[in-house]
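Q: Hi! First time doing this. I have a protein sequence and I read that you can turn it into a structure. Is that right? Here it is:
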Amino acid sequence: MKKYIILSVLFTLFGLISCYDDDSSLGTKKIGDITIGTLEDASIISYSGNKLIREPEIETTYPDDQLTYAWYIYKEDQDKGFRTNKIDSVKNLSYEVNLPAGSYTIVFEATATENGYAATAEMKLAVSTTFSQGFYILKETADGNTELDVYTQNGLVPDLLAMTQGEALPGSPRNLSVGYSQAFIDTEENKMVNANTVCITTESDKLICLRTVDMLKAFDNSNLLFEEMEADEEPYCMIRSLASIFYFSNKGIRSSSTSENSGKMGFPLDNGGSKHVQIVNGGFGGHVYWNNTKHRVMTVDYNCIAASEVEYNTEINQDNLECLSSGLNYVGRVETIYFLCQDKVSGIRYLYLLSGGAIVEIRPLNSTLHLAQGDIIAGNGLTGTFIYSVHNNKLYAYNFDAETEIEIPVTGLPAGETISYIFNLYWNMGPFGDTSLNFDNIVIGTQKENTYTVYLYNIRGGQPYGEPIDQFSGEGKLKSVRYVCQLVVDQIAMLGPFYGYGPCFPY
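A: Yes, that's right. Below is the predicted 3D structure, encoded as structure tokens:
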């Protein structure tokens, strides 16, 4: 028995030696000799021309002509495998980042063509955008369509629509507005979200709303309404109300809550509207707006349940009036809203002044006033009871309290440039929010051929003060400038006038 055990052990040892000394081709084929060095993680601002550049170090015995390369990108929640989205087939990567904000993984793969052996290395890519906070510029392109630029601390990023949507929006610009905390369905994530948006409408009756963090399209004519938008609908504007987003068109007024929902708009209230809309008492008093169809100042409550004419006993024939400008003034804890209208037949201009949502006066303007002649009009928001006008390339301020008008000298404008735009932009977060971003600027735009320049001025006594604190230029005809803040605007912030602190931002 002992002899059989010894023989069994010997046979086992011979078998092990035989395996160890195997000289087959499988044992000698080299398949594990590609080593890729570490790829460093990166953080990049998207849509700004920034590139992810990586030159991986590779140790291998394979000749260069027997290696192929591939770069892949995927989001952290992707479950379809990393090879789903290939971005390049070179060894050294130079990839311009035009991606929505988020966290991504980059995978580099080197493959030996001789035997298919592959080695990989990966890195993390954190993508943010320059769009979430800055000055948005609505402009008309050389061919008469609508485009959007944005100016941030990193400089000007032009032609956002062409960059992110593939083309400019058809038609000349009509309106630019900001929808803070707008609800919509994120089609990439397939879930309901809330985000700050910019909304653009054009004279060809096109509409688009874009999430500011990444320019993701939230709405356009095809999906804003539950029903199909009729071909003759004229979108005017979308604005943030107390706790809703209001949409004004020639069909009437619709609204959608800023709470989590699809954001789609239901049946319209009343009929007619315009882009000239102002908020009353932080939204607690609803909105007042000019109705292009009825040629009247109208009011709608903050729940978008009832709309009616703001009645005022006057002998003025309002049926020929069209609205040129509107604004909200909050000085000395007094809220005054104006609508500047012009009779299409006589040319006479009338200034509607409202307080608490009620008309207190319809004032015919003396034809010698520059406010009665200028074609560029804007109101002061927080520092003076002024309405600005540009006439014969000069800036004037009409004091609607004192009924006087003065010329305002503007420094820092080069000779040969035509003033084409004025607006009082401010961010006025009350004590219930983050006030570190508050500012109050006069914005003056000039035009020289197809180049616009925007000048930002400090404001003192309701007037631009000193030299411009900043300026930037772009291509196209300047139509509107609005500031987008990255902060969340809640109901408390919207109710600033109700608490005596004034509105957060101008419409």
